[in-house]
Design goal:
This protein is of the alpha/beta class. 45% of the residues lie in helices and 15% in strands. Strands 1-2-10-7-8-9 form a six-stranded mixed beta sheet, sandwiched between helices. A four-stranded parallel beta sheet has the order 5-4-3-6, sandwiched between helices. Strand 4, helix 6 and strand 5 form a beta-alpha-beta unit. The longest helix has 18 residues. The chain is globular and about 55 Å long. The protein starts with 6 loop residues before the first helix and ends with a helix.
Length: 320
């Protein structure tokens, strides 16, 4: 059976993204190496356009639409980063965007989405079904719907982050990737296993949002109540059908981290690497620092995003 997303798809996405997406830096911290007992290479997608890896998948998907569809516009639903990514991709390609976001999405993410020219529509994430609402909105207005992870072109675009990391870092023993809906790790594991079949791929979820961990253990998609966690970008209720079909074959394990561990990781990255990282972006580092991931040898970790207001960042880092 042909995989839904292949390594060739990821290479094709990399070509499409060249000169459009940033080739984000890979950085090191000797202090982090000493603390976890490994050589850690950090892929800084917090420095990507719109402040997160999501631009890769959004642009790859939107850029493949026909001129007629681009003229009509695109729609998306998102907790914040995919919203900004689709808004910017649409603007870059001469299209327009309507984005559905939760009412409690951080104001900084809503404002940025509108700043890229998109119309923002809100819903209650605890009572509303964003997929149903988003599909209805797109159908009503004749828009092309670009979901945050349940789309092969989106997944292929996200996989270019791991492709770049492996090209720069060389051989890795372990790749650590934050998990929300599963698009980043689906693309990353596809790239990693194609280049290095023996690599260990570990996903990281917030403790309150462990739907992928439970699903992999059960061998089928498991739904959980809407997670209440500071990692708003990882507040998924159930893995995507497409992403889960990939991840159950390629992901070796899932670690979970507490909100307190996420806060400590954000603090560490700020103090030691001078980088601002949002909670969802810090979960991979949190897993390393809290010992939730065994780290023999050489480890790559993706910081998935850095979209957080100064006020929220300071609030989260204040010791209770």
């Amino acid at each position: 059976m042909t995989p839904a997303v292949t390594f060739d798809d990821i290479r094709d996405a990399a070509t499409r993204l060249a000169g459009v997406a940033h080739r984000t830096p890979v950085v090191r911290s000797r202090t982090l190496d000493d603390l976890v007992g490994a050589e850690v290479l950090i892929k800084c997608e917090n420095l990507q356009r719109i402040g997160a890896f999501k631009f890769r998948g959004a642009y790859n998907a939107v850029s493949r639409l026909s001129p007629e569809q681009l003229a009509k516009g695109v729609a998306a639903y998102s907790s914040g980063n995919h919203a900004q990514a689709v808004a910017l991709a649409a603007r870059e390609l001469g299209s327009s965007a309507v984005i559905l976001v939760p009412e409690d999405t951080p104001k900084s993410k809503k404002d940025a989405t509108e700043g890229y020219g998109a119309e923002v529509v809100t819903y209650d994430r605890y009572t509303g079904d964003r997929v149903a609402i988003g599909e209805a909105l797109a159908a009503e207005r004749g828009l092309a719907l670009i979901p945050p992870y349940e789309h092969p072109h989106v997944i292929a675009g996200q996989g270019t982050a791991a492709l770049e990391l492996l090209e720069e870092a060389g051989s890795l023993d372990t790749l650590v990737v934050p998990v929300g809906g599963g698009g980043l790790i689906a693309g990353s594991s596809t790239a990693a296993k194609a280049l290095q079949p023996g690599i260990r791929v570990v996903g990281v979820e917030p403790e309150a949002g462990d739907d992928t961990k439970r699903s992999l253990a059960a061998g089928e998609r498991v739904s959980i109540p809407v997670p209440r966690t500071i990692a708003d970008g990882q507040a998924a209720e159930i893995p995507g059908e497409l992403t889960f079909s990939i991840n159950r074959e390629l992901v070796d394990e899932i670690a979970v981290v507490t909100d307190d561990a996420i806060r400590e990781a954000m603090r560490f990255v700020f103090e030691r690497l001078k980088l601002v990282v949002e909670p969802s972006g810090a979960t991979g580092i949190a897993a390393l620092l809290s010992g939730q991931v065994a780290t023999p040898g050489k480890v790559g970790v993706i910081i998935s995003g850095g979209n957080i207001s100064p006020e929220r960042f300071a609030e989260l880092l204040v010791t209770p």
